[in-house]
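Record type: monomer structure entry
Structure origin: computed from sequence
Chain ID: A
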Amino acid sequence: MNTTNILVVEDEASIAEVVSLYLKRAGYNVQIASDGKQAMNIFERQMPDFVILDLMLPEVDGLSLTRWLRDRSDVPIIMLTARREEIDRIAGLEMGADDYVVKPFSPQELVSRVRAVMRRLGREQVEAGSERSLSFDNLSIDPLSRVVTVKENPVELTAKEFDMLHLLARHPKQVFTREQLLERVWGGAQYIDPGTVTVHVRRLREKIEDEPSKPVRLLTVWGVGYKFEP
């Protein structure tokens, strides 16, 4: 699991709660501050690895808080804003924020934005062994180049197809439920149709199995989920 500590600065309790839920499901540790001053106190006690903050905050507004944070750290920052005006987003980015999300937003999109910023800044903590190339009979998976070859021929996978295959292949014979796959690959099971997993498994079988209707790699464990057979 990820050990990245994220500080969420949001005065709307319902939004803070949902954002925190999704981030925790994605494996992050989360602290919540309801205003800018509380965020400053938390930051000075224990510097977080990432900050998500609302621009419209009581006590100290989000732009001022962004400037304050930048004076003290290069911690990644994503701004949340209900404002549609481009000038606010530009101001935040010029003050040093790394990205922004406009309300109303999808919590899953926010998790994806966090991951993207972490990858871009090279700060995502990688699961042990997750960068190691995997080789099986007639199948190889290279996580660095994100290339999969079957019988030495590269096959084209979507990002999610690759992530699912790589996860299953890193844990051979381990059975993953649909919910676990949704959480590990998509970042959260809520609001995502579990049938999404079934569709992706079917597509993967069509690309890596000799006989997709009689798979030998991606196996169904009836009533439980799926596993990778090495």
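Annotation 1: The mean pLDDT is 86.
Annotation 2: The two ends are 23 Å apart (CA to CA).
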